[in-house]
């Protein structure tokens, strides 16, 4: 009874800067003489979570924070931390467990900086975070990028931010002026921004004025992967120049690169104020160039440096264009800019913008635009006997670059061809006429053929066993009767004249019945039945 129950610590947090770990918590109890002890464990990728262990550096602590850097060494594993309050023999329940993967919650510490003010500029040398530490959270220090913030040490200061290399020169500064600056390290791949270095201030000096022979206004002109360096010379006396280059990645190292500048072949001890340095260029990196001027008395002066990123610095020239006409189709053949350069072909995915228009007395009117990927294009729907002009522009969307337009090429479309149209109309008309005539003629010939075939080549013949009827008489029912038939008919004329209408009908009926029964008479009197019905009717009349 009356025993005090200790409260558990709350709001457990671990703050990580590089490999420095600080455990913090809150305690809301009113007890005095309370201390705190922590435990930790980590999850092994093979054996899951390990057993709880006492956290070195955080046992019997009187405050609400402790340094646990020596205990946490598994930066990429899940770590668990818990803490409790203690007073003599009394202990509180454990706090809630704080879980962390150190690499994800760690902050990048401030880099180290060294400053030197000389000849009107400030030279900065930056050392990476954890430069002097054995245990490192950030293993690849070459991945660090550095941001500089610099300003005049005045009440109306304007801050200037720029990306710098580990060794950098800050120019464009006012002489004899105090500048303050700070530097931040960043890891772009994991989008982490570090803490700024402590602010450092330095005063600039005046720039020497006796270097009149120095090259000035150094610039790069690059077209179709042909690179030229240009500069100016204000010195009237004899001066020779050496063009030097430095491979860009050397500046990203923390080593001194001042002795790693090389001379450009063909640009040594020259008196011209330009130099072709295409021979050193590849597309796999970037470069820095500068001009060393040497006077007659062997005094040397270095110009400002210029950066060259080949595929970005290079400009695309206008393409070549040839136009041709066939009927009312305009054929456009394009020669890619720098087609003789393998680098241009391999690294730029070019498209082409074609502009074409009627070249009338009203100048350029109704300019039409067509974009293609191929180097051959056609334009249709042209007006006969009209001049058309074409110009082409090359562009690449990847590098957001476009060339100047090519020289205009003009061509005239041919006159309208009426003769082929007349021939076509005539041919179609004749074809229709032939069809109209041939169709009924063919129909008539077809029916005539059927009639002839039916008359001369009947498909069926009368029976040959009909007595008194020769086969040659009835080879066709449409043949006229022979004279012998007429004579036979005249022989039975007296008999036929005596037959009245009634007897004829009886005769016809008797004949039909006989034919149906298949019986025929052999008497001579019945020979008259061989006369056709039509002949009998005529005789009766």
From TrEMBL:
CDD domains: FN3 (cd00063). Residues 531-541 have a biased composition (Basic and acidic residues). The keyword Lipid biosynthesis does not apply. InterPro entries: FN3_dom, FN3_sf, Ig-like_fold, Interferon/interleukin_rcp_dom, Type-II_Cytokine-TF_Rcpt. Residues 315-416 form the Fibronectin type-III domain. The chain crosses the membrane at residues 418-446. Coiled coil: none annotated. It comes from the Eukaryota. Keywords: Membrane, Transmembrane, Transmembrane helix. GO terms for molecular function: type I interferon receptor activity. Residues 507-541 are annotated as: Disordered. One of its GO terms (cellular component) is plasma membrane. Gene3D superfamilies: Immunoglobulins. Pfam families: Interfer-bind, Tissue_fac. PANTHER family: INTERFERON ALPHA_BETA RECEPTOR 1 (PTHR20859:SF54), INTERFERON/INTERLEUKIN RECEPTOR (PTHR20859). This is INAR1 protein. It comes from Brachypteracias leptosomus (short-legged ground-roller). The gene is Ifnar1.
């Amino acid at each position: 009874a009356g025993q005090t129950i200790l409260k558990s610590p709350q709001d457990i947090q671990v703050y990580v800067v590089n490999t420095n770990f600080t455990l913090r918590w809150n305690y809301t109890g009113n007890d005095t003489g309370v201390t705190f002890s922590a435990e930790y464990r980590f999850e092994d990728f093979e054996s899951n979570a390990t057993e709880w262990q006492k956290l070195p550096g955080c046992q019997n602590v009187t405050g609400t924070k402790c340094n646990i850097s020596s205990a946490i060494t598994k930066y990429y594993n899940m770590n668990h931390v818990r803490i409790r309050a203690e007073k003599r023999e009394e202990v509180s329940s454990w706090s809630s467990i704080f879980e962390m993967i150190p690499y994800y919650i760690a902050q990048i510490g401030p880099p180290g900086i060294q400053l030197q003010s000389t000849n009107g500029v400030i030279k900065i040398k930056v050392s990476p975070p954890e430069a002097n530490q054995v245990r490192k959270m950030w293993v690849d220090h070459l991945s660090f990028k550095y941001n500089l913030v610099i300003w005049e040490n005045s009440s109306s200061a304007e801050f200037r931010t720029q990306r710098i290399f580990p060794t950098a020169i800050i120019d464009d500064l006012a002489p004899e002026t105090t500048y303050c600056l700070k530097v931040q390290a960043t890891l772009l791949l994991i989008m982490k921004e570090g803490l700024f270095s402590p602010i450092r201030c330095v005063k600039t000096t005046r720039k020497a004025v006796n270097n009149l022979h120095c090259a000035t206004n150094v610039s790069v002109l690059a077209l179709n992967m042909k690179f030229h360096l240009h500069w100016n010379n204000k010195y009237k006396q004899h001066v020779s120049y050496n063009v030097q280059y430095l491979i860009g990645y050397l500046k990203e190292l923390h080593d001194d690169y001042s002795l790693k500048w090389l001379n450009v072949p063909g640009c040594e001890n020259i008196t011209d104020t330009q130099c072709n340095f295409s021979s050193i260029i590849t597309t796999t990196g970037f470069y820095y160039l500068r001009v060393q001027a040497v006077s007659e008395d062997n005094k040397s002066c270095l110009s400002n440096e210029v950066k060259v990123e080949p595929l970005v610095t290079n400009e695309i020239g206008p393409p070549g264009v040839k136009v041709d006409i066939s009927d009312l189709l305009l054929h456009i053949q394009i020669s890619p800019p720098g087609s003789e350069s393998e680098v241009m072909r391999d690294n730029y995915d070019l498209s082409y913008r074609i502009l074409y228009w009627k070249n009338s007395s009203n100048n350029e009117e109704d300019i039409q635009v067509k974009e293609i990927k191929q180097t051959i294009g056609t334009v249709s729907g042209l007006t006969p006997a009209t001049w058309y002009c074409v110009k082409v522009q090359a562009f690449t969307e990847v590098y957001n670059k476009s060339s100047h337009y090519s020289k205009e090429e003009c061509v005239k479309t041919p006159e309208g061809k009426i003769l082929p149209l007349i021939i076509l109309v005539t041919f179609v008309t004749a074809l229709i006429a032939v069809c109209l005539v041939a169709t009924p003629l063919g129909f008539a010939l077809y029916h005539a053929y059927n009639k002839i075939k039916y008359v001369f080549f009947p498909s069926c013949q009368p029976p040959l066993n009909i007595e008194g009827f020769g086969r040659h008489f009835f080879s066709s029912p449409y043949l006229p009767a022979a004279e012998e038939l007429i004579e036979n008919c005249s022989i039975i004329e007296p008999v036929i004249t005596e037959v009245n209408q009634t007897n004829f009908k009886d005769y016809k009926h008797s004949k039909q019945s006989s034919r149906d029964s298949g019986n025929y008479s052999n008497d001579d009197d019945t020979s008259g039945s061989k006369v056709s019905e039509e002949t009998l009717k005529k005789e009766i009349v």
